[in-house]
């Protein structure tokens, strides 16, 4: 599993960071998403990645 | 435009039970999930009641948030119009690309990390108010003792607005949000608050510091060479109102709900890690700002199989969406463990609430501290006698008498 983040679409709401702070962070200046780990491993991390994609309000996240 | 006869209901519909959405939402969702409704402004609009349709509409680029456009569907009798063009409705009234830039400018102030850094100060504010509550007479009104002052103080400190003026701006904002007040009175309240913030921003411009959000935005504008006084006044206006009314109502409603559901309250007390999940469920159940998800179409666009034409208003009834059984099993049951994070109480799409993580943090600190420090807290009157805000654009409680 690979997480793809489109910072152009990101609205900086931080829902991804709340979901899993090991996978996601936010840029200090404009709040856009930073991927800390684009390739989550293990059931829990993968589940968190799916949740983040589902709730991301900017639809900035996708999985490949 | 469609004839009024074709409409199925007139919004806003009233909540019959204070803890549930208007019962008509269920009928609408089952019989006509995308239907024409009448509005007090004399307009007609589409009402969406399915969660997926609301999410689709809110994330489509073909809907506008421009509240000054005559096509924008309004749930109050007449629009608040400013004679003075220097006032710019901030963020919620903008569309991309203008919105995207304005949001980027300020969203860094509200990241999860920035909010966490506020935690000790918020804890201190909450503790001081609970000290005062415990030292004061019983019963006490929790709205005045805790729900309103905590988020007001926090947003004032963050923005750089003197809290000493809170009586003034709280009265302006509650009159603006009350659906029963006359358009003239709403206009007066609006102008009073706008003028106050206009003066405040002018003062800050003369002496901007890094100490507060408004000062930081002024310095940022100077650096980029795009000083815009009107934009800052609009931003201060939006953040001040949005920052205290909403969270205050969720503190009161959440306290009542948790006290009425002692089994669920016990779970939080046993494991504070569950508080955040409880907050998501409370946000979903109440959806206190449901008309924030109103838009109008800027092109002909299909949503959930229905063609919506350019210029038609759409109200994503987020409270209906948050009780859609397709999104939440047994939606009318309050269950803190259901995993409700995909609710749309903060909206969805590019306008999703900027201050949502501040709200979550304040609610978390308030609930954890209140039930820990005042374990015997109970409501001092029968729940059906509580003054719920059936008359306001933002749902909540006018007062909450408690004892312990
Ligand atoms: S949840 Fe989506 S929009 Fe929000 S910060 Fe993360 S990627 Fe950006």
TrEMBL record, chain A:
Record Pfam families: Fer4_13
Keyword entries, A-Z: 3Fe-4S, Electron transport, Iron, Iron-sulfur, Metal-binding, Transport
Molecular functions (GO terms): 3 iron, 4 sulfur cluster binding; metal ion binding
Keyword Iron: yes
Domain of life assignment: Bacteria
Entry's transmembrane regions: none
Cofactor: [3Fe-4S] cluster
PANTHER family: FERREDOXIN (PTHR36923)
The protein's name in its UniProt record: Ferredoxin
Automatic annotation (TrEMBL), chain B:
Segments of this protein annotated with the region Disordered: 1-32
Pathway assignment: Antibiotic biosynthesis; vancomycin biosynthesis
Catalytic class of the enzyme: oxidoreductase
EC number: 1.14.-.-
Family matches, as InterPro entries: Cyt_P450, Cyt_P450_B, Cyt_P450_CS, Cyt_P450_sf
Protein name: Cytochrome P450
Keyword field contains Lyase: no
Signal sequence annotation: none
Native source organism of the sequence: Amycolatopsis japonica
Keyword annotations: Heme, Iron, Metal-binding, Monooxygenase, Oxidoreductase
Organism domain of life: Bacteria
UniProt-listed PANTHER family: CYTOCHROME P450 YJIB-RELATED, P450, PUTATIVE (EUROFUNG)-RELATED
């Amino acid at each position: 599993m690979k997480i793809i983040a489109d910072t152009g679409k990101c609205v900086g709401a931080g829902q991804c960071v709340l979901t899993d702070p090991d996978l996601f962070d936010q840029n200090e200046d404009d709040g856009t998403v930073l991927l800390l780990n684009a390739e989550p491993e293990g059931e829990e991390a993968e589940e968190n990645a799916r949740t983040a994609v589902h709730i991301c309000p900017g639809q900035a996240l996708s999985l490949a | 435009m469609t004839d009024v006869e074709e409409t199925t209901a007139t919004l806003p519909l009233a909540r019959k039970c204070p803890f549930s959405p208007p019962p008509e939402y269920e009928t609408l969702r089952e019989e006509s999930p995308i239907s024409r409704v009448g509005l007090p402004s004399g307009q007609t609009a589409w009402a969406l009641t399915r969660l997926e349709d609301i999410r689709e509409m809110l994330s489509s680029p073909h809907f506008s948030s421009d509240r000054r456009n005559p096509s924008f569907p309004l749930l109050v009798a007449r629009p608040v119009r400013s004679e003075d063009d220097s006032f710019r409705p901030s963020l919620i009234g903008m569309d991309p690309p203008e919105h995207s830039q304005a949001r980027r400018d300020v969203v860094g102030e509200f990241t999860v990390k920035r909010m966490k850094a506020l935690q000790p100060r918020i804890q201190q504010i909450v503790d001081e108010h609970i000290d005062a509550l415990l030292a004061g007479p019983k019963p006490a009104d929790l709205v005045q003792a805790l729900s309103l002052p905590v988020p007001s103080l926090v947003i004032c400190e963050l923005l750089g607005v003197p809290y000493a003026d809170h009586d003034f701006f709280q009265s302006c904002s509650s009159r603006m949000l009350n659906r029963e007040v006359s358009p003239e009175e709403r206009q007066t309240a609006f102008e009073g608050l706008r003028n106050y913030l206009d003066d405040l921003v002018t003062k800050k411009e003369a002496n901007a510091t890094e100490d507060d959000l408004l000062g930081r935005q002024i310095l940022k504008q100077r650096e980029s060479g795009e000083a815009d006084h009107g934009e800052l006044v609009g931003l201060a206006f939006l953040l001040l109102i949005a920052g205290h009314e909403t969270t205050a109502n969720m503190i009161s409603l959440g306290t009542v709900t948790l006290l009425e559901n002692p089994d669920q309250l016990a779970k939080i007390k046993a494991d504070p890690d569950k508080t955040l999940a409880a907050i998501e469920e409370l946000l979903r159940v109440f959806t206190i700002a449901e008309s924030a998800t109103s838009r109008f179409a800027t092109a002909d666009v299909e949503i959930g199989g229905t063609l919506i034409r350019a210029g038609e208003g759409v109200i994503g009834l987020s409270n209906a969406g948050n009780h859609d059984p397709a999104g939440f099993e047994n939606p009318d049951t309050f269950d803190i463990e259901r995993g409700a994070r995909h609710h749309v109480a903060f909206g969805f799409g590019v306008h999703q609430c900027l201050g949502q993580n501040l709200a979550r943090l304040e609610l978390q600190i308030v609930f954890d501290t209140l039930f820990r420090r005042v374990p015997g807290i109970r409501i001092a009157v029968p729940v059906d006698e509580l003054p719920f805000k059936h008359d306001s654009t933002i749902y909540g409680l006018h007062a909450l008498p408690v004892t312990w």
